[in-house]
Amino acid sequence: MQIKERFDNFLYYDDFELIIKNNKIEISNYKNIENFSKNNIKISSKEKIYEINGNDLSINTLFDDYLLINGNIKSVNLINYVF
Predict the structure, then answer these.
(1) How far is the C-alpha of 52 from the C-alpha of 7, rounded, in Å?
(2) Is residue 13 in a domain?
(3) What does the DSSP assignment read for 17-62?
(4) Which of 80, 49, 55, 81 lies closest to 70 in space, CA to CA?
(5) What is the CATH number of the domain that holds 77?
(6) Is CB count within 10 Å lower at the N or C end of the chain?
């Protein structure tokens, strides 16, 4: 792969990504926040909806294409496909 192709992939990468580490969830390239409470957050991607359950959930960082969720995370579920 040439340098230009690698750079383009970096700049235009738009796949949904969810990373869990140390009671934090990093989400990149999400479509919408469907629901938000201190016990439940639902996030949609282009094709799916993810449900995050826990206690004292909060969104600590919020950008157009990036979220950082903190709290006592109990589960992350795929609950639906978006059509």
Answers:
(1) 33
(2) no
(3) EEEEETTEEEEES--EEEEE-SSEEEEE-SSEEEEEEEEEEEEEEE
(4) 55
(5) 2.60.40.2000
(6) C
Please give the Cα distance from 47 to 50 (Å, whole number): 10
The encoded tokens of residue 42 equal: 């639902």
- Domain enclosing residue 60, as ranges: 18-81
13-17, 20-24, 70-74: least confident range: 13-17
Asked if 34 contacts 43 with a C-beta cutoff of 8 angstroms, the reply is yes
Tally the domains of the chain: 1
- How does pLDDT run across 30-48, given as a tens digit for each residue? 999 999 999 999 999 988 9
Q: How far is CA 9 from CA 3, 4, 5, 15, in A?
A: 10, 9, 6, 11
The model's pTM is: 0.80
